TrEMBL record:
Subunit field text: Homodimer.
Gene3D superfamilies in alphabetical order: Leucine Dehydrogenase, chain A, domain 1, NAD(P)-binding Rossmann-like Domain
Binding-site positions, NADP(+): 164-166, 234
Lipid metabolism is among the record's keywords: no
Organism lineage: Bacteria, Bacteria division WOR-3
Any one annotated GO CC term: cytosol
Record protein name field: Bifunctional protein FolD
Organism: candidate division WOR-3 bacterium
HAMAP family documented for this protein: THF_DHG_CYH
Record domain Tetrahydrofolate dehydrogenase/cyclohydrolase catalytic: where: 5-119
PROSITE patterns in UniProt: THF_DHG_CYH_2
Entry's family note: Belongs to the tetrahydrofolate dehydrogenase/cyclohydrolase family.
Record function comment: Catalyzes the oxidation of 5,10-methylenetetrahydrofolate to 5,10-methenyltetrahydrofolate and then the hydrolysis of 5,10-methenyltetrahydrofolate to 10-formyltetrahydrofolate.
Pathway: One-carbon metabolism; tetrahydrofolate interconversion
GO biological process, one term: methionine biosynthetic process
Amino acid sequence: MGLVLDGRSCAKAVRAELAAEAARLAVAGCRPKLGIMLVGEDAASQIYVRSKERACREVGIEVVTARFAASVGAAELRAKIDDWNRDRSVHGMIVQLPLPEGRDGRELVDAVAPEKDVDGLSMVNTGLLAKGTPRLVPATPAGIVELLVRNGIRIRGRRVVVVGRGELVGRPLASLLLMRGERGDATVTVCHSATPDLADVCRSAEILVVAVGRAGLVTGEMVSEGVVVVDAGTNRTEKGLVGDVDFDSVAPKASAITPVPGGVGPMTVAMLLANVVKAAKECATGMWSE
């Protein structure tokens, strides 16, 4: 087995850098601040929000969470977003997804000012990334690239296969990897449910990223020797949390591989924090439009 890409230690290093930057901004009178909108009582969402709140406080980011009942009116939710959009002390905003059934998450996400959209999911930020001029990038794709770079894994000129075309990971990651520069310039293939001969495509990869939400989808016989494998899947099973990659059969062939848990997950949180700090810095340096 090759290198195990330890997302926890990498995220710890990122957070230390962010804490120092947040402290500098606070001294300058611009302490980074995140607003989180949580609608309903979904148990998983409650856990995720508490995790984000804790992570923010650990690096010196102020966080305020607006909690709403599932029955709240759409106008009240939109009013809160508009309020945070106007508030220059709030630098980033998150609409915690999924929303209760019947709610239009897209409408709320797109209502967030692009410069405060630290999830990077609004139409504006999605379009900027696809255009090759990103402002705020979704945290999981950004975390994957950061994890590779910090472990000395070259991206430029490599054949990268991304299994999954979702808006949270697959699509934005493909756009990120296509950007010019040392952190991009990859030759990218995106696979999905209609891809024929998935195993053959996976075997062509020098770097393989899997993000579909199917436990053990990719097995050892589907990868080539020396491949770098990034498992962005999270699946709850009787054995606990597992990824989309069958670690035991793939790891012996991989030159580097992320574990689940402890790989991509910690980097996702770290890069969300990085987006908040970036947004605060842009506000402090006058990059926000009035």
